[in-house]
Write a structure and sequence with these properties.
Elements lengths: L13 H9 L1 H9 L6 E2 H8 L3 H13 L3 E6 L2 E6 L2 H13 L8 H12 L1 E3 L2 E3 H13 L3 E3 L17 E3 L1 H10 L14 E4 L6 E4 H13 L3 E3 L6 E3 L1 H11 L8
Antiparallel strand pairs: 1-3, 2-3, 4-5, 6-7, 8-9, 10-11
Helix pairs in contact: 2-3, 3-4
């Protein structure tokens, strides 16, 4: 995580961050915020299943670990993940963690919905996110292991970078996603390895911009459970027509 380094050569305090994440209630708080929105302490207490006084203590520890930031609006406070890298870290930890036992139909339904389609910070994940990423690659709009065309002067990237092709730039612009508007200070094309699918979904500013556009078009809507999203009928048809995403992503 980017905030872990001190810039003076000291080793990162992995144990400290792990301890902050490792308490079950705090882990639930972080997961509740993993869709990128800010929430008040009362909502986070409900997500974690703890009292108001207890959630205050947990939030303090997460703030101290620089995993959260707090925003003030008058007398109200809203908490959010400190950086997108926190959400990425949670996604990676989920790949090596054992699944929690499912003890109710409600938990089973929510778990299945998260596997199908969810938000990982501001971008799509789950089977739907993986299917959209695959569609972009199959169409030739993304090519592995490259840099954004606008950043072609940069040295060759590592495996977490993708190149947007000229046709990809044109097609995404026609769809309403302006790749050139993404801040150059952050990699515009990155993938995040989906913890359930073990395949990449589109992350970074481009992934966020694409998800935002799908919400704007009404192709995507938020579910009742945190992070869960659903495709509308227009979304199923539109993603099939434009990105070649077939309906079998939901199976």
């Amino acid at each position: 995580m980017s905030q872990s380094g001190t810039g003076n050569g000291a080793e990162a305090d992995i144990a400290g961050v792990a301890a902050a994440i490792g308490e079950p209630s705090r882990a639930r708080v972080l997961l509740a915020l993993a869709e990128g929105r800010a929430l008040p302490a009362s909502a986070l207490a409900a997500e974690a299943g703890v009292s108001a006084s207890t959630i205050s203590e947990h939030l303090g520890k997460l703030l101290d670990a620089k995993l959260l930031t707090v925003e003030r609006d008058g007398r109200h406070r809203y908490y959010r993940l400190a950086t997108p890298e926190v959400a990425t870290t949670l996604e990676w930890l989920s790949r090596i963690a054992q699944p929690l036992p499912v003890s109710s139909l409600r938990q089973s339904t929510r778990a299945a919905a998260l596997l199908r389609a969810r938000l990982c910070y501001d971008h799509l994940a789950g089977r739907l996110g993986v299917a959209v990423m695959a569609g972009l690659v199959e169409h030739g709009w993304l090519v592995e292991h490259g840099w954004l065309v606008a950043e072609a002067s940069e040295p060759a990237g590592g495996p977490e970078r993708y190149l947007v092709t000229e046709s990809g730039l044109a097609e995404l612009a026609a769809f309403g996603v302006d790749v050139s508007s993404v801040p150059a200070r952050r990699p515009s094309v990155r993938y995040c390895l989906d913890w359930a699918e073990r395949r990449p979904h589109l992350a970074g500013p481009l992934g966020g911009a694409l998800a935002t556009r799908l919400f704007e078009l009404g192709w995507l809507r938020r579910g009742r459970a945190r992070r869960v999203v659903h495709l509308t009928e227009d979304g199923i048809a539109g993603l099939g027509d434009i990105f070649g995403v077939r309906a079998d992503w939901a199976s």
